[in-house]
Specification:
This protein has 253 residues and is an alpha/beta fold. Helices cover 46% and strands 15% of the residues. The protein has helices at residues 17-28, 40-50, 62-76, 99-127, 149-168, 187-197, 203-209, 219-230, and strands at residues 8-12, 32-37, 53-56, 81-84, 131-136, 174-181, 241-244. α4 links the parallel β4 and β5 (131-136). α1 crosses α8 (219-230). The longest helix has 29 residues, at 99-127.
């Protein structure tokens, strides 16, 4: 049996990148999967490839983030696991970030997970059922680069929220964990490197050479770890925000 056999998993922000990798891994491990995304074409293609159920949603709208749970329940009767994988990584420093950019980061990187978790936890409580939640965060939540100020602010809030929700609902057998991922090879990262850093076609090779393990983080490896955290095989662990990276936070040469 797969690690997620007989589980219904909702992946918010699942149409591309890390989220899409989690959709594929959860399906492979036996889950019934619902995932959300803004782009209909991308989402429908992934649904056709995997058999997962695509729900078009703009998670910047708190109502749509909350309703993603209701739509998954309507499709499959329940939700057992939630992954918040959507992320906005557009650049901004403390000095040049506008209120609009700041609000956009909060909307996607913090508010959307908050209200999706609210709906998922209420659903689990109504069913008196255990459940698991995994939030995709970032090692930048520890401080990050100067050009990621609004991103860091929002994701650091998500790390705190992860621990708060885990503590609040530990006696309900609802486990909540987070994954602080490092520099990862995704379609979104490719677009960011080209738009904000004038990267050429060889940016991945250059980036890989700069990393201790000789490669960037890989989506399939992250997805496998998320599936483990969602599954019963991860045991009692809750409230953990795990640094999934090859850079050791606090380590100095």
């Amino acid at each position: 049996m797969g690690l997620l056999e007989n589980k219904v998993v909702l992946v918010n922000g699942g149409s591309q990148g890390v989220g899409a990798g989690i959709v594929r891994a959860a399906v492979r491990e036996g889950a019934t999967v619902v995932f959300t995304g803004r782009r209909a074409g991308t989402g429908e293609k992934l649904a056709a490839d995997t058999g997962a159920h695509f729900v078009r949603a703009d998670l910047a709208d708190a109502t749509q983030a909350r309703d993603s749970v209701a739509r998954a329940v309507a499709a499959h009767g329940r939700v057992d696991c939630l992954v918040n994988a959507a992320g906005l990584t557009s650049r901004g420093s403390l000095l040049d970030t506008t209120p609009e950019l700041f609000d956009a980061h909060v909307a996607i990187n913090l508010r959307a997970p908050f209200f999706a978790m609210q709906a998922a936890v209420q659903h689990l409580l109504d069913r008196r059922a255990p459940g698991t939640i995994v939030n995709i965060i970032t090692t930048s939540a520890h401080g990050g680069q100067s050009f990621l100020a609004p991103y860091v602010a929002a994701k650091a809030g998500l790390a705190g929220l992860t621990r708060n929700a885990a503590h609040a609902h530990r006696w309900d057998r609802i486990r909540v964990n987070g994954l602080n991922i490092g520099w990862t090879d995704t379609e979104g990262e490719d677009a960011v490197q080209r738009e904000f850093h004038d990267a050429g076609d060889d940016w991945r090779e250059k980036a890989a050479r700069s990393q201790p393990m000789g490669k960037l983080g890989q989506v399939d490896e992250i997805a496998d770890f998320v599936v483990f955290l969602l599954s019963d095989r991860s045991g009692v662990v809750t409230g953990s925000v795990i640094d999934w990276d090859q850079i050791v936070i606090g380590g100095l040469d």
